[in-house]
Amino acid sequence: MWAIVSALIEGLVLGVIARLLIPGKQDVPLWLTMILGMIGAMIGNGVAHVFGVADTGGIDWWRHLFQLGAAIVVIATVAPLWAGRKQH
C-alpha cells in the first residue's frame, strides 16, 4: 500500500516541478500531471539503471535528474495533444 502512495506522491511532485520548468502554459489537469510524472519516474529509473546510477550510497541525485528530465519530456509531449483534443 505504501508503495502506491509513494508512487502517487512522487508522480505529483515530479509532474508539478516539470510543469513549472516547461515554458508556457500546459493545459493538463492535475490527475494527468500526476500520471505523467509517474511515467517520467519509471522512464528515469530505467535510464538511471542503464547508466549504473540508480542506487548510490547517498541521495540518488542522478536518478532524480533522469526522472525529472523524463517527466519534462513526457509532459511537454502530451500537453499539446491533450489541449488539441478539446479543439476538435
UniProtKB/TrEMBL annotation:
Under the heading Pfam families, the entry gives:
Transgly_assoc
Primary residence:
membrane
Q: Does the keyword Transmembrane apply?
A: yes
Q: Where in the cell is it found?
A: Cell membrane
Where do the TM regions start and end? 28-53, 65-83
Swiss-Prot/TrEMBL keywords: Cell membrane, Membrane, Transmembrane, Transmembrane helix
Write down any Gene Ontology CC term.
plasma membrane
Q: Where is the signal peptide?
A: none
Q: How does it sit in the membrane?
A: Multi-pass membrane protein
Q: Could you identify this protein by its name?
A: GlsB/YeaQ/YmgE family stress response membrane protein
Family from the record: Belongs to the UPF0410 family.
The domain of life is Bacteria
**Keyword Transmembrane helix attached:** yes
